[in-house]
Design brief:
5% of the residues lie in helices and 63% in strands. The protein is mainly β and 121 residues long. Strands 1, 2, 3, 4, 5, 6, 7, 8, 9, 10 and 11 form an eleven-stranded antiparallel beta sheet that branches. It is elongated, with a radius of gyration of 18 Å.
């Protein structure tokens, strides 16, 4: 599983979330009490700051070929990774594309990726 975004703890459950000014929108893939369907299989509820327990940012991190990465996306058995080691020669040696100045990304076979874990901020 790969997550990269806000999550909110509300009523003992964790929901994907999006800050909206002082409020936060939480999302569900199933209909729940107080949620509004915004498209098939996608439901939203807006919470006030005093209604939820905690908001965090969750990012999936890993290592590939011994170097640190963020997992950006999954497709079939491949992972889109962004290098976080900060060394351009290493990024080039790994065959990564320079997505933006100093930002290196590439696709890696999921079976080669190690130490996947979620980091919360």
């Amino acid at each position: 599983m790969m997550r990269d975004g806000y999550v909110v703890s509300w009523q003992g459950q964790e929901f994907d979330a999006a800050p909206d000014g002082d409020r936060v929108r939480i999302y569900s893939s199933t209909p729940l009490d107080g949620f509004e369907e915004i498209r098939p299989g996608r439901f939203v509820r807006v919470l006030e700051p005093d209604e939820y327990d905690e908001m965090s940012y969750v990012r999936t991190l890993c290592t590939w070929r011994g170097e640190p990465f963020i997992v950006l996306a999954e497709a079939d058995n491949w992972l889109r990774l962004e290098y976080t080691g900060g060394r351009a020669p290493v990024a080039r040696q790994l065959g990564l594309e320079e997505f933006d100045y100093g930002v290196y990304q590439g696709w890696a076979p999921a079976g080669e990726v190690r130490d996947r874990y979620e980091h919360r901020v």
